[in-house]
Design goal:
four-stranded parallel β-sheet, 40% helix, 17% strand, 208 residues
Length: 208
């Protein structure tokens, strides 16, 4: 059995999106794929587990391995190993209509998300202007938006580098509202994009 292991959130939409993803990935692979959350007491014995985390924080480094070991599960490569794929997918959607866009990528924080930040900046010539900001460290989303507003950059699209909806996305909205920027579009979370399900399916296909 294959398991998609997510953080979990009090927001009901989060769990629903994870379960839908598991069902859709199962259809692609033609085998059972289930969802699980860090709040679960255990994982199915002997399962192959894909942690749904873009960064490498305490959960990925400590909590997830301990949870997997307790149920004799095999951990698959973290999503940070596929940062280039998720970055390219986001750019493809953001620049579909025009390359003349200013994009602020919103990271949860910078520590632990180095692979994602590097992958994003490796492609920054695909549009007019690119920056990264953090929801839990500096430079924050609010401070970058205020800087761009001062410099009269113009319209900005904020791309959350988040997999699912939840309280973190609500925090991002609050940070945008707290800025002085007046022309800001908030793009969808990554799981909303065409191609996301296929990326996750490919992560599950990799040899253990």
């Amino acid at each position: 059995m294959k398991i998609l292991l997510a953080h979990g959130s009090p927001a009901a939409a989060h769990a629903a999106q994870v379960r839908t993803l598991a069902s859709d990935v199962s259809a692609i692979l033609g085998e059972e794929v289930c969802s699980a959350f860090l709040s679960d007491e255990s994982l199915p014995e002997g399962a192959q587990v894909l942690p749904l985390f873009l960064g490498a924080g305490k959960h990925v480094m400590e909590d997830v391995p301990a949870m997997a070991a307790a149920s004799n599960c095999t951990l698959l490569a973290p999503l940070s190993d596929h940062a280039a794929d998720f970055s390219a997918m986001a750019y493809d959607h953001l620049t579909r209509e025009s390359k003349r866009v200013n994009i602020l990528f919103a990271l949860y924080r910078f520590a632990g998300f180095e692979a994602v930040a590097a992958a994003l900046h490796a492609q920054n010539k695909r549009c007019s202007l690119v920056a990264t900001g953090s929801m839990h460290s500096e430079p924050s989303i609010t401070s970058v938006l205020n800087l761009w507003q001062r410099d009269e950059i113009g319209a900005v699209t904020v791309q959350p580098m988040l997999l699912f909806d939840g309280h973190t996305l609500a925090r991002l909205r609050q940070m945008i509202d707290a800025s002085f920027a007046t022309d800001v579009t908030l793009a969808p979370v990554l799981s909303s994009y065409d191609g996301f399900t296929a990326l996750i399916a490919n992560c599950l296909k990799e040899p253990v």
